[in-house]
Write a structure and sequence with these properties.
The chain contains no helices and nine strands. By secondary structure, the chain is mainly beta. Strands 3-9-8-5-6 form a five-stranded mixed beta sheet, with no helix packed on it. A four-stranded mixed beta sheet has the order 2-1-4-7, with no helix packed on it. The chain binds copper (II) ion.
Length: 89
């Protein structure tokens, strides 16, 4: 059985943490919680995972993260300025 795991990233002018790690095969959820207006982080996107979404203030938004392939996957703000990383190992 694969394990269900959730990683939470607080969005407060940056991503905290900006690196999250999942194990291959886990049922992984990545949740962003934007808690301040600071910065340009009202959109999160990932070309690697193929998502782009608005992050309403204080309303966590979750994504299912595929973990079938080990590697490093990037997510960024809407303008590719602030970056974070998902590691599947
Ligand atoms: Cu930005």
């Amino acid at each position: 059985m694969s394990k269900q795991v959730e990683a939470k990233v607080t969005v407060d002018g940056k991503y905290e943490p900006n690196v999250v790690t999942f194990k291959q095969g886990d049922q992984a959820t990545l949740t962003f919680d934007r808690v301040s207006e600071s910065g340009c982080l009202d959109t999160v996107q990932s070309h690697d995972f193929g998502f782009q979404k608005k992050l309403p203030l204080n309303e966590p938004v979750s994504f299912n993260i595929p973990t079938d392939k080990p590697g490093e996957y990037e997510f960024t703000c809407g303008m590719n300025m602030v970056k974070g990383k998902v590691i599947v190992e």
